[in-house]
Design goal:
Elements lengths: L3 E5 L6 H17 L4 E6 L8 E2 L4 E2 L10 E4 L2 H5 L8 H10 L3 H16 L1 E6 L3 E3 L5 H17 L3 E8 L7 H14 L5 E4 L2 H10 L5 E3 L3 H4 L26 E5 L2 H6 L2 H17 L3 E5 L6 H9 L7 E4 L7 H6 L4 E4 L2 H9 L4 E5 L2 H9 L6 E3 L5 H32 L5 H13 L1
Length: 427
């Protein structure tokens, strides 16, 4: 019996991915009655699930999450070149790992759920393109081949794609050749940027491709009751300081894509400018991986009480409460910007990919997006000037964002179209 909606690409530690995960779970429960959402993650595996309330590793049965999380390791599951689930190979690999019995148990459970999967919903935020490794792009296609081989209807929800030009032309040709075939399988492929849409169309002209808004941006508020066993035990949002306040939300990937020293210097200049304008500054970690970078920035102002570091573990929807207290953000996390815009809070954005540019264009904010990949004295000075301009005009930018947000929410919901399509093949 088909009874699971397997959600791929979601995570719990990255708050942007968490928001997409929670939104998808709520949509499945509302629009696909009788089908149970299951999060298939390589990061938040059973017995390693991070209980955000406690901030440490915990057993799943001690978690407050009202959905199951299974281990989905493409390298284990893919098994053979045909993309079939190779249980013997998977178990042999599992036994070689630490906690082998846990891996075996997780792998068997994953196979059972895939056997009973009604559909698969992929919510990867950005996982397929040459800015990731060739191996990661191969994994993305391996995942599609595995789902196709098992005949699981697959829906790729709004995400970023491309470009697909690797430094090694052989790798480019390999990805293009496989993608031209495998991208024909999903029943929906949703790009959230024009450039990503064009790149995917060039890869596979016959793919069922559409341009859609980001899941979190287009969706309504997340109802905690749809994802938690007991929402009443969720800790309250902490006090992040008195106004006037600006939140800064770093992203470790800006340090990877830009020069590490220059990016850290830029953050220091931004905070110095905000302090000179009379603001208090709160450094906010929006993903688990960003913690060390947040601490680095705070260390530049270690003895300055006007600069605080938010250390609390929060759920994705709680960040909107934090951001709503700020005049504006200086942010590098895509979904931090999305959450801010949902509150009508403008952002100065320090980015590294097309997704930032197109998001800000959608809200007539394109003058506030800056690429950190090739920083120099001139570009840093322009970014600091952009922060100063935002400080003087954040109210009017907030009004502009609210107007565009209202227009966006008048469009149809991509999950409703998914449910309609699935209904047409499930009958």
């Amino acid at each position: 019996m088909s009874r699971y909606a397997v959600i791929l690409g979601g995570e719990l530690r990255n708050r942007g991915a968490q928001a997409m995960t929670f939104r998808t779970i709520a949509a499945v429960r509302e629009l696909l009655p009788g089908i149970e959402p299951v999060v298939a993650s390589n990061h938040d595996a059973p017995l390693e699930l991070i209980d955000i309330v406690k901030g440490k590793h915990a057993r799943p049965d001690q978690s407050n999450l009202a959905f199951d999380v299974i281990r989905f390791d493409v390298d284990l599951l893919y098994g053979s070149s045909a993309g079939r689930f190779n249980l013997s190979s998977a178990l042999a690999l599992a036994k070689t790992e630490a906690k082998g019995i846990v891996r075996m148990s997780s792998t068997i459970k994953t196979k059972r759920i895939l056997d009973e999967a009604a559909l698969c919903i992929d919510i990867s935020g950005f996982a397929f393109g040459a800015q990731w490794s060739f191996r990661n792009c191969q994994r993305y296609l391996n995942k599609l081949e595995l789902l196709r081989e098992r005949g699981i209807p697959t829906y790729i929800m709004p995400q970023s794609f491309g470009p697909f030009e690797f430094a090694d032309p052989t790798q480019t040709e390999t990805i293009r050749s496989r993608a031209a075939e495998l991208l024909l399988y999903p029943r929906m492929i949703c790009a959230r940027e024009q450039q990503g849409f064009a790149d995917m169309k060039a890869l596979c002209p016959g793919a069922r491709l559409s341009l859609e808004e980001d899941l979190v941006l287009a969706g309504g508020p997340i109802d905690p009751a749809s994802v938690f066993v007991d929402p009443s035990v969720i800790p309250p949002v902490p006090n992040v300081g008195e106004p006037p306040l600006v939140g800064i939300v770093p992203n470790r990937r800006t340090f990877d894509h830009g020069d590490e020293t220059s990016v850290l210097t830029l953050w220091g200049l931004v905070v110095e400018e905000l302090l000179s304008l009379g603001y208090r500054v709160c450094i906010i970690r929006h993903a688990e991986d960003d913690g060390s970078r947040c601490h680095q920035i705070k260390a530049l102002f270690e003895d300055d009480a006007r600069v605080s570091l938010l250390k609390d573990e929060l759920y994705c929807f709680q960040y909107e409460d934090i951001f709503a207290r700020c005049d504006f953000l200086v942010a590098s996390r895509f979904h931090a910007i999305v959450h801010a815009y949902r509150c009508g809070v403008p952002c100065v954005v320090l980015g590294w990919a097309t997704k930032y540019e197109e998001l800000l264009e959608r809200f007539a904010q394109e003058s506030f997006v800056h690429d950190v990949r090739n920083l120099n004295d001139g570009s840093m000075a322009r970014i600091v000037a952009s922060v100063r301009h935002m400080a003087n005009h954040h109210d009017e930018e907030s009004t502009r964002i609210a107007t565009h947000l209202a227009e966006l929410h008048s469009t149809s919901d991509v999950f409703e179209r998914l449910a309609e399509d699935y209904g047409s093949i499930a009958r």
